[in-house]
Amino acid sequence: MHELSIALGIIDFATEEATRRNSRVTGIHLRLGPLSGVVKDALLFSYDIATADTPLAGSRLVIDEVPVVVYCPACREPRTLESMQHLACPTCGSPTPEVREGRELEVVALELEP
């Protein structure tokens, strides 16, 4: 389960930032795409385990799930896929190999308090 190592990396980053700002982390906001290879529930579970007995114990990991967005060359528009199993434009059916969103695994905000 690589989600545990990802959780530990997020915790390290948040801890360093909180130390630098002389604050305490109460929440971490993350954007997560389905093509990132990370399972949301496994990451949440790993985060809870990894923060136990640390300065981040009791903090929240808030995950914003990002849809897969591709660029359709036929429509010349970005399109949100209904299923990751079929990389085709949901409007015209053309193959859409250019993925614009959906691979995200990024910390976008930290909730800090003094």
Descriptive report:
This protein is an alpha+beta fold and 114 residues long. The chain has a single domain (3-113), classed as hypothetical protein PF0899 fold. It has helices at residues 3-20, 40-51, and strands at residues 24-32, 60-65, 69-72, 77-80, 98-101, 105-113. The protein has a three-stranded mixed β-sheet. The protein has a three-stranded antiparallel β-sheet with strand order 4-3-5, with no helix packed on it.
List the helices and strands and how they pair.
Elements: H1 3-20, E1 24-32, H2 40-51, E2 60-65, E3 69-72, E4 77-80, E5 98-101, E6 105-113
Parallel strand pairs: 1-2
Antiparallel strand pairs: 1-6, 3-4, 3-5
Helix pairs in contact: 1-2
* Strand adjacency order, main sheet: 2-1-6
What gross morphology would you assign?
A: elongated
CATH topology: hypothetical protein PF0899 fold
Range of strand content: 25-35%
CATH class: Alpha Beta
Mean pLDDT: 95
Put simply, the count of helices is 2
Rg, Cα atoms, Å: 17 Å
Uncertain segments: none
Biggest β-sheet strands, sense, barrel: 3 strands, mixed
Oligomer state of the chains in this structure: single chain
Structural class: alpha+beta
Helix content: 25-40%
- Tell me the CATH architecture: 2-Layer Sandwich
Tell me how many strands there are.
Answer: 6
Q: How many structural domains in the coordinates?
A: 1
User: What is the distance, rounded to the nearest whole angstrom, between the alpha carbons of the first and last residues?
Assistant: 34 Å
Order of helices and strands: HEHEEEEE
